[in-house]
């Protein structure tokens, strides 16, 4: 929203000025609207978007200094405690909590579109058996545009609605198929009588030979992981989805782009990296040496630090409690990896190196431990993050497409390469 405040910039050695309007949101710091800045003949330079808001959005708000996260205004703690994943999806997509009737209809729609096109099973067979599940996710989700051609017209609201439903319904099925394929197990058809999270555990762990009843404590823990990872405003993968979508690419292709970005260890790969790090540290006796290596910048303490949170990540506090619940339910309170993580957490929270840099544990420090306790292999951690984040990505994509002021994303650059020079034939070089 525009205010009557302005920031005045002086340039051209003090001979010219330009007034830049100040905009204010409902929450968070004001932003300077620099769209008219290019009239000066210059651009602004901000690699990594450290000081740049890339868009206007009504979906999620993070206060990094206070350690707060809201989806559509609702604190994450309340949603994690009292809501469920599908209700949170509804909230993220439509902006309001559903009525009882709307909730029932939404759940019914999502849970009755969980099967994938049967020919997609043949598509899987093209992958090497030892493919990483994320490699398959990127490919298969992108390929949905080849299977569901009747929901690709992004200018048609009905097509967009169907594509959104299809993505949320089918992502767990595809994620479980990636896992089953990688271990040579048969694909399990979804069970629409189960909840979203219980059905995912069923597709992951059931076999056609015997009955499988998901443990309700573990189902709730998974549901909570999905809620906590459902959205996180303009992070790298969401910005990737927006940028891909800004060219008019179809939603399945855009979500595949988001999955590719999420794969990196500084983003969605962090919980996988936390478990690898705990394995490498091995025992409590090696923590001191490891921490010294972090301070010498030989490696990073994975699961610590965040671009926006300079206080405790609120998702981490919830995940820490969930971690205790799950390990207690499974009788794993004395699990050596968990004990090692707790010791590492204590040392890091007290060490001035981490305190001065405001490096607190983030959600991924604990989510990997919970996922391992759920028997989910490390290679599937980022896949589950992608599953959870699909609703956030698609809500941002939909918000962007519905915005009449939307333009193709096209950053500029500061060129520091060679100046103009003439081509030299190969025999003269
Ligand atoms: N371990 C050790 N030192 C760190 C860490 C860390 N995990 N994170 C930042 N630092 C140090 C960094 O070396 C730098 O120190 P100095 O000022 O002496 O040069 C200072 O803290 C600032 O670091 P930065 O790289 O400028 O911070 P950033 O905002 O660019 O990085 C981050 C954010 C998440 C990429 C980074 O903290 C990191 O690599 N963390 C580990 C990976 C991780 O856990 N990622 C999951 C993020 S939460 C999931 C999500 O939302 O995607």
From TrEMBL:
<dbReference type="GO" id="GO:0036440">
    <property type="term" value="F:citrate synthase activity"/>
</dbReference>
<keyword id="KW-0472">Membrane</keyword>
<dbReference type="GO" id="GO:0006099">
    <property type="term" value="P:tricarboxylic acid cycle"/>
</dbReference>
<dbReference type="InterPro" id="IPR016142">
    <property type="entry name" value="Citrate_synth-like_lrg_a-sub"/>
</dbReference>
<dbReference type="InterPro" id="IPR016143">
    <property type="entry name" value="Citrate_synth-like_sm_a-sub"/>
</dbReference>
<keyword id="KW-0816">Tricarboxylic acid cycle</keyword>
<keyword id="KW-0808">Transferase</keyword>
<dbReference type="InterPro" id="IPR019810">
    <property type="entry name" value="Citrate_synthase_AS"/>
</dbReference>
<keyword id="KW-0812">Transmembrane</keyword>
<feature type="transmembrane region" description="Helical">
    <location>
        <begin position="365"/>
        <end position="388"/>
    </location>
</feature>
<dbReference type="InterPro" id="IPR002020">
    <property type="entry name" value="Citrate_synthase"/>
</dbReference>
<dbReference type="InterPro" id="IPR024176">
    <property type="entry name" value="Citrate_synthase_bac-typ"/>
</dbReference>
<dbReference type="InterPro" id="IPR010953">
    <property type="entry name" value="Citrate_synthase_typ-I"/>
</dbReference>
<dbReference type="GO" id="GO:0005737">
    <property type="term" value="C:cytoplasm"/>
</dbReference>
<comment type="similarity">
    <text>Belongs to the citrate synthase family.</text>
</comment>
<feature type="active site">
    <location>
        <position position="306"/>
    </location>
</feature>
<comment type="pathway">
    <text>Carbohydrate metabolism; tricarboxylic acid cycle; isocitrate from oxaloacetate: step 1/2.</text>
</comment>
<keyword id="KW-1133">Transmembrane helix</keyword>
<feature type="active site">
    <location>
        <position position="364"/>
    </location>
</feature>
<protein>
    <recommendedName>
        <fullName>Citrate synthase</fullName>
    </recommendedName>
</protein>
<dbReference type="Pfam" id="PF00285">
    <property type="entry name" value="Citrate_synt"/>
</dbReference>
<dbReference type="InterPro" id="IPR036969">
    <property type="entry name" value="Citrate_synthase_sf"/>
</dbReference>
């Amino acid at each position: 929203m525009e205010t009557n405040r302005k920031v005045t910039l002086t340039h051209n050695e003090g001979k010219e000025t330009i007034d830049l309007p100040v905009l204010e949101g409902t929450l968070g710091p004001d932003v300077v609207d620099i769209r008219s800045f290019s009239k000066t003949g210059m651009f602004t330079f901000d690699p990594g978007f450290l000081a740049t808001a890339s868009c206007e959005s009504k979906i999620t708000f993070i206060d990094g200094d206070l350690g707060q996260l809201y989806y559509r205004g609702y604190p994450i703690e309340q949603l994690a405690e009292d809501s469920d994943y599908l209700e949170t999806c509804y909230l993220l997509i439509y902006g309001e909590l559903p009525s009882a009737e709307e909730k029932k209809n939404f759940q019914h729609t999502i849970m009755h579109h969980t099967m994938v096109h049967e020919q997609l099973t043949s598509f899987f067979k093209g992958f090497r058996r030892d493919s990483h599940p994320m490699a398959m996710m990127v490919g298969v989700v992108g390929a949905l545009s080849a299977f569901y051609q009747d929901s690709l017209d992004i200018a048609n609201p009905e097509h967009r609605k169907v594509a959104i439903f299809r993505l949320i319904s089918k992502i767990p099925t595809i994620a479980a198929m990636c896992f089953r394929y990688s271990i040579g197990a048969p694909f399990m058809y979804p069970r629409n009588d189960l909840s979203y999270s219980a059905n995912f555990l069923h597709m992951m762990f059931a076999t056609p030979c015997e009955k499988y009843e998901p443990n309700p404590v573990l189902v709730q823990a998974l549901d909570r992981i999905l809620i906590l990872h459902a959205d996180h405003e303009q992070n790298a993968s969401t910005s990737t989805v927006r940028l891909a979508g800004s060219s008019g690419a179809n939603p399945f292709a855009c979500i595949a782009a988001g999955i590719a970005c999420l794969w990196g260890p500084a983003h969605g790969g962090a919980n996988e990296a936390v478990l690898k790090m705990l394995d490498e540290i091995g025992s409590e006796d090696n923590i001191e040496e490891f921490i010294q290596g972090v301070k010498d910048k030989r490696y990073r303490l994975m699961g610590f630090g965040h671009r926006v949170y300079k206080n405790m990540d609120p998702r981490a506090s919830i995940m820490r409690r969930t971690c205790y619940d799950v390990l207690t339910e499974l009788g794993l309170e004395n699990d050596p990896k968990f004990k090692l993580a707790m010791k590492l957490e204590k040392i890091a929270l007290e060490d001035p190196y981490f305190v001065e840099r405001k490096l607190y544990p983030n959600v991924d420090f604990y989510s990997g431990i919970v996922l391992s306790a759920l028997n989910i292999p490390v290679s599937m951690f980022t896949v589950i993050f992608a599953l959870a984040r699909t609703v956030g990505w698609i809500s941002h994509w939909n918000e962007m497409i519905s915005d009449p002021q939307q333009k193709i994303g096209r950053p500029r650059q500061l060129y520091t390469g060679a100046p103009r020079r003439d081509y030299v034939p190969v025999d003269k070089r």
